[in-house]
Design brief:
The protein is mainly alpha-helical and 540 residues long. Among the domains are: 104 residues, no CATH class; 158 residues, no CATH class. The protein contains 15 helices and twelve strands. Strands 3-11-10 form a three-stranded antiparallel sheet, with no helix packed on it. Strands 4-8-7 form a three-stranded antiparallel sheet, covered by helices on one side. Strands 1-2 form a two-stranded antiparallel sheet. A hairpin with a 6-residue loop joins strand 7 and strand 8. Helix 12 runs antiparallel to helix 13 and helix 14 packs across helix 15. The structure holds 2-acetamido-2-deoxy-beta-D-glucopyranose (2 copies) and zinc ion (3 copies). One 2-acetamido-2-deoxy-beta-D-glucopyranose binds next to helix 5. One of its GO terms (molecular function) is zinc ion binding. Keywords: Metal-binding, Methyltransferase, S-adenosyl-L-methionine, Signal, Transferase, Zinc, Zinc-finger.
Length: 540
């Protein structure tokens, strides 16, 4: 399981400066209303699944889906309101589809996250029966009851809650019992038809699966229907390779896992035309640009920022298929990611090789230091490495971008905002040349860089970046997403500060100083491992 994403340090780290405050009211500003943007009405059932003629696959009921290898095309029906959408109407809410299905919270977070909407909160109400489920309020509790009822009895009987895979499998099977056979409304594919890839599992994964099945049997309370061992294993296999990682309302932490069969129909493309986002307890499939009639919808299962070979390797290892998308075939971005500093003379190949190796070695040391919370060490490694890279690697070089990203996060965390801002700016300039202009990871990176500039008092650049991030996140996350709302508030605040700055710099700095000394409010997120952006939760 991959809840504690990589090297995420414990939140209450003893030397942690987290919480010791930094300027400017961000949180208090969340009152600003959402943008005046038209929202296209969603209608159920507007997606259609068609067998892909190019690879001759059959309809889902006829064949086990070769997920996630290419097999079916998910397209919009011509009646979908987004057909024929012009470029200029973009920026409106471009949600294609919204799904809720079987979803559970991660085991380490069951007391901190609402089991219905997955908001991370301090104060939650506990289910009086099982004392396991937690909710924001009565509404969330009521909404959960249908799915929680059996779980509640099972947890009570067992005396504790099993891990999330087991809880999810049980929810899926209780649903199957409730809804009996046939496809539920709005469901384009049955869980029976999803691939489980158990044959591809390594020994260790197989053992994990067997343990889960055993523990499941102790937990499961049947409502009548009997499921065979093969079927139970199938469900666990499906969860393992099709489980969708749910993140909290700020997109900062993985808080749960869900199975959304419809989502599994969307194929991977490294340069996709849709994105998936978890918003208020629901999965949204959002369009990133104009969708043409009959076009296949695609999403990216992984972060784009990697060399073609590495992306392909990651997809093969985690999702068992060979990516043959256009980006992978043409290796479009590799030149930028491997670029060497222009100049006369160009750095020698041997030097480039040496610096690249040095960067990779440093990266390992950084990961280790970061996992131990030794952030000052991390800063030292980053500074050394950037100095070595500077005369040799171009600004879009992946090894440079990785160091810039870590160093800006860690420096922000240590409240060394000016140096953090300088590195964040270089990183964003590189990202803008590499990522699709509507990419969620890009939007989040620009947002963090904007906040860093703001905190460093570089208000013009900071405001510009916050506006840019807002524009990206309106498309990738939508105006109703809590992060987009935060950004909108920050945009208003930085705009006000920028105006103040332009009218009278002296007054601006005076006020800033005052704010800095009095207001322990906005804090930086603890630096975390960047290796997110993977939509399905199968671990590597
Ligand atoms: C959407 O993505 C699919 C598959 O990646 C591709 O075939 C199609 O041309 C894309 N459409 C647009 C408008 O980008
Ligand atoms: C890049 O690819 C490698 C090899 O597949 C993988 O281990 C790594 O996690 C990827 N990095 C990111 C940031 O996705
Ligand atoms: Zn809730
Ligand atoms: Zn309960
Ligand atoms: Zn690809």
């Amino acid at each position: 399981m991959c809840w504690a994403r990589g090297n995420l340090p414990a939140r209450a780290h003893s030397n942690s400066p987290f919480g010791q405050g930094m300027l400017v009211v961000v949180c208090a500003l969340l009152l600003v209303s959402s943008p005046a943007m038209g929202s296209l009405q969603l209608a159920e059932g507007l997606l259609c699944v068609t067998p892909s003629t190019s690879c001759g696959m059959m309809a889902p009921s006829d064949a086990m889906l070769q997920w996630p290898t290419r097999r079916l095309l998910l397209t919009l029906l011509p009646s979908h309101p987004l057909h024929g959408l012009t470029k200029t109407r973009f920026g409106a809410d471009v949600t294609l589809y919204r799904w809720t299905r079987d979803q559970v919270t991660g085991s380490s977070l069951t007391h901190n996250v609402c089991h219905t909407c997955f908001k991370r909160q301090e104060k939650l109400h506990r289910c009086g029966q099982c004392k396991f489920a937690h909710y924001c309020d009565r509404t969330c509790q009521k909404d959960a009851w249908l799915n929680h009822k059996n779980e509640c009895s099972a947890v009570k009987k067992l005396g504790k809650a099993p891990n999330e895979n087991i809880r999810l499998a049980a929810r899926i099977m209780w649903r199957i019992e409730r809804e009996s056979s046939g496809l539920a409304e709005g469901c384009l594919v049955s869980i029976d038809d999803l691939q489980n890839h158990i044959d591809n599992f390594q020994d260790e994964e197989k053992n994990g699966l067997m343990d889960d099945v055993q523990n499941f049997l102790d937990y499961w309370l049947s409502q009548g229907q009997q499921f065979g061992m093969n079927y139970i294993s199938h469900i666990f296999g499906v969860i393992s390779c099709n489980g969708f990682t749910l993140s909290d309302q700020r997109g900062l932490q993985a808080v749960g896992v869900g199975i959304f069969p419809n989502l599994c129909l969307v194929n991977h493309d490294c340069w996709p035309n849709c994105t998936v986002i978890f918003n208020n307890g629901k999965i949204e499939l959002r369009s990133l640009g104009k969708i043409n009639k009959g076009d296949e919808l695609s999403v990216s299962y992984i972060d784009f920022l990697n060399l073609t070979e590495d992306r392909q390797q990651q997809l093969k290892r985690q999702y068992y298929f060979d990516c043959t998308c256009e980006q992978c075939t043409k290796k479009t971005t590799d030149a930028l990611l491997l670029a060497v500093k222009e100049g006369d003379p160009k750095p020698a190949d041997s030097v480039v090789k040496e610096v690249t190796q040095f960067s990779m070695d440093t990266m390992e040391k950084i990961d280790k230091a970061r996992s131990e919370g030794l952030y000052h060490e991390v800063v030292k490694y980053c500074r050394d490495c950037l100095k070595r890279q500077e005369p040799v690697l171009a600004d879009t070089n992946i090894h440079k971008l990785r160091i810039l990203s870590i160093s800006s996060e860690v420096l922000s965390y240590l409240q060394m905002f000016e140096e953090a801002a300088e590195n964040a700016k270089k990183m964003v300039d590189g990202y803008l040349k590499i990522y699709h202009p509507h990419n969620a990871q890009l939007g989040m990176a620009v947002m963090r860089a904007g906040v860093t500039h703001w905190h460093a008092g570089i208000i013009e650049v900071g405001h510009g970046m916050i506006c840019k991030a807002f524009a990206i996140l309106l498309i990738t996350h939508g105006p109703s997403h809590p992060i987009a709302k935060d950004l909108e508030a920050m945009r208003a605040q930085t705009e006000m500060e920028l105006r103040m700055f332009q009218q009278n710099e002296f007054v601006y700095y005076k006020m800033r100083e005052a704010a800095l000394s009095n207001r322990p409010i906005q804090v930086m997120q603890e630096p975390k491992n960047e290796a997110q952006g993977m939509i399905f939760h199968k671990k590597s």
